[in-house]
Design brief:
Blueprint (H helix, E strand, L loop, with lengths): L15 E7 L2 E8 L9 E4 L13 H4 L6 E4 L17 H14 L5 E6 L1 H13 L4 E7 L17 H4 L10 H11 L7 H7 L1 H5 L5 H12 L3 H8 L9 E6 L7 H10 L4 E5 L6 H4 L1 H17 L2
Length: 300
Amino acid sequence: MTQSTAQLPRVAGAGERRTIRLIHYNVTYYVYGAEHGTDGALVLLHDVLAGAFSWREVIPSLTSSGRAIYVLDLLGHGLSDHPWPADTSVWGHADYLAMFLEALQLTNVVLVGHGLGGGVAQILATRLSRERVAALVLIDTVCYLHAFAEDWPLPQMKERQEYDAPKRASVEEVLRDLRATLPAASARPEQFKQQMLDDFVNHWNSELHKEVLYQHIRNLIPYYVNSVSSDLSRVGKPVLIIWGEEDQQIPLKYAQRLHREIPGSQLSIIPQAGHLVLFDAPEAVARAIRGFVSSLSARP
């Protein structure tokens, strides 16, 4: 099930939208720049309840990296299929994304993941696609046993993980709660409300989409994330960690722990930015990624 064109969130311009069949799902992705090369590409994975649209202010500043950029709508988000019931945990996403990298014959990938997407990236880089991933960028990522915040992206997240939780809330109540809660993850909440809140919220405006949303929340499983975060010390690849200094959903201490435990990793702390750092400081995020990519090119 997809939305009408009038409802679609705006993704960065000048990209080419494509769809690929993986397992029995249609996965939508967008390709930008350098002209769609398959070696050394940047692959961008978004956070829970977001979509490719969340990168739209970052992408224009990344195209100067000289590499192709592949930006996905994860299953259950954006224009990709919304399977229900289905496994949309970090492992479920990583399963079909390993097939995505193989089907497109992407090699020496720079895998970039924000929030939930960072958890998926960890699995691909350490387990399922080690040979295809050359470097890793983790942005305010889920990690260790921190798979979700107590009150974000919805209030009372523990209770929302109960299987009958969708029956206790109407679509209208869920949308209202999202509108009240999501802006708390931005250091610029008023601007976020005006410029991007609708893109995050309006997508879930049906009974099916509400069920898929709750499915995503049930699949935020701490042990699934911790099972790979503990492997990052042996990932053996260049790693850049980017973090909003004011992130209240996944606090900075997690970035500092990742940095301590991943040998040779780089840490870029972005001031005046929260968990929604892609919105709060898109140019700073892009600048950090570009610098990291340049350093990869300079390696012998």
